[in-house]
Amino acid sequence: MLLNPNEKSHANLIEIMDAIDKFYLIENVQDINQEKVEAKLKDIVEISREIMKTEWDKSKKIFSI
Predict the structure, then answer these.
(1) 24 pLDDT tier (thresholds 50, 70, 90)
(2) How many CA atoms lie within 13 A of 39 on its CB side?
(3) Gap between the Cα atoms of 46 and 60, Å rounded
(4) Is this structure's pTM higher than 0.85?
């Protein structure tokens, strides 16, 4: 599955993943906070579930599941 940056939930997921990437840049390593990373990972799981549910619903309609 590919993310569609034109869809709000997909864009939110991309934004969170980019934020995690920024945590691990050399200049930001000193500022890494385990709680911040865990919160972002929790957000990723939550949004991913929402996206997967939406895409599953679309698939069911297309393939008459």
Answers:
(1) confident
(2) 7
(3) 21
(4) no
Length of the chain in residues, anyone?
A: 65
Using CA atoms, how far apart are residues 21 and 30, in angstroms rounded to an integer?
14
**CA nearest to 6, candidates 58, 14, 57:** 14
- Sign of dihedral through CA atoms 24, 27, 29, 35? negative
Q: Are 4 and 54 in contact (CB under 8 A)?
A: no
Contact 40, 20 (CB under 8 A): yes
Q: Give the long-range contacts of residues 15-20, CB within 8 A, separation 24 or more.
A: 16/40, 16/43, 16/44, 16/47, 17/44, 20/44
- Give the separation between CA 43 and CA 41, rounded to whole angstroms: 5
